[in-house]
User: Which sequence fits this backbone?
């Protein structure tokens, strides 16, 4: 999938937003959803997406939707830091398949990092079980300001 093209309304995140496939939610409002990545690259890997925008990538997103996404990104990253006490946080965002993107609904990754823990490969991490993700989501949600 190149940087340019039509939004696919049947991409996985669109299905999550419509409730057609399950996800482990951290928090949401009318504009954004924060949920656990089911193939986490590290413990506490969270994804942030816009609900209304059909931007596939950063190049396409409306300024207002981007503003809401980045505010949600910071709010969630702060809660991840308080809840899980990582030593670092990698904020990642990929554009186009050549850029490493695999789901073509714009999203930001929050990946907690610890010096002594290796990062699992992007797109190669094992699937996490829902109970483990729910427990992490609850801990993160409890620290939201
Ligand atoms: P991208 O490669 O597009 O930057 O990131 C897509 C992310 O979505 C990956 O980190 C991948 O693990 C995650 N992902 C793929 N399918 C699902 C799914 O069905 N549910 C959730 N929660 N995450 C998914």
Assistant:
């Amino acid at each position: 999938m190149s940087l340019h093209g039509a939004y696919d309304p049947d991409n996985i995140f669109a299905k999550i937003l419509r409730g057609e496939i399950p996800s482990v939610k951290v928090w949401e409002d009318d504009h954004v959803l924060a949920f656990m990545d089911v193939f986490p690259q590290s413990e506490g890997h969270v994804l942030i997406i816009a609900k209304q925008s059909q931007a596939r990538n950063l190049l396409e997103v409306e300024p207002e939707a981007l503003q809401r996404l980045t505010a949600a990104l910071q709010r969630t990253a702060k809660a991840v830091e308080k809840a899980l006490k990582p030593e670092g946080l990698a904020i990642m965002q990929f554009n186009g398949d050549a850029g490493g993107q695999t789901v073509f609904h714009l999203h930001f990754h929050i990946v907690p990092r610890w010096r002594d823990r290796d990062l699992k490969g992007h797109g190669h991490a094992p699937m996490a079980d829902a109970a483990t993700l729910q427990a992490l989501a609850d801990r993160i949600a409890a620290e939201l300001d």
